[in-house]
Model the fold of this input.
Amino acid sequence: MPIASFTLALFLPISASVVRVVADREQGGVSVGSGVTVAPSVVATSCHVVRDAVGVRIGGRDGTFAADAEHADLRRDVCYLRVPSWNGKPVVLASANDVEPGAPVAALGFTGGVAIRPRFGEILALHPFEEGRVIEATAPFNSGSSGGGLFDAEGALIGLLTFRLRNSVVSYYSIPVDWVRQSLPHESQWAAIHPMREMTPFWQGEPEELPPFLRAKGE
Done:
């Protein structure tokens, strides 16, 4: 399906499963991002959105709902929120084998932390890293969309919107859906919401600590 065939109507049902994430920070103020419903009452988001949080709530079409627990894979920058009162429909998780360069994609997140609407583009490259392939695409998003979803032409989730290459208007990166699937927590893995500073996400840190594909971009 070409990008021109993507329509708002195609992603309207899916957008109901994408939520606004508001984290009350330990040092005061809030951090705002997005999240995707990946299992009943479970929302996946980016850890960098909630890592300083002492409390988290999500906003959906029917109101605001408090998260009562979290689970983190900080290195991969994927965190999960348990929201008992949230009844949003889980999205379909794509197979990693269905993701190929050149394929059209849509980024769904809360632009500026306020409005949700799809942004369209295509996959530029897939970067092998830690048993997955980090997705580089042209579908634009900003910080309020971090933790939102990158979807394929069938409406299946292929990644979580994570970061933009500095000073670039064409390279936007998402962690792969395989990481989301692999890290989904068991009941015993949920923990109370608390600030998390144990590790830096793979895309942050000193230049020599970055994955090879990001070091190459900075040269």
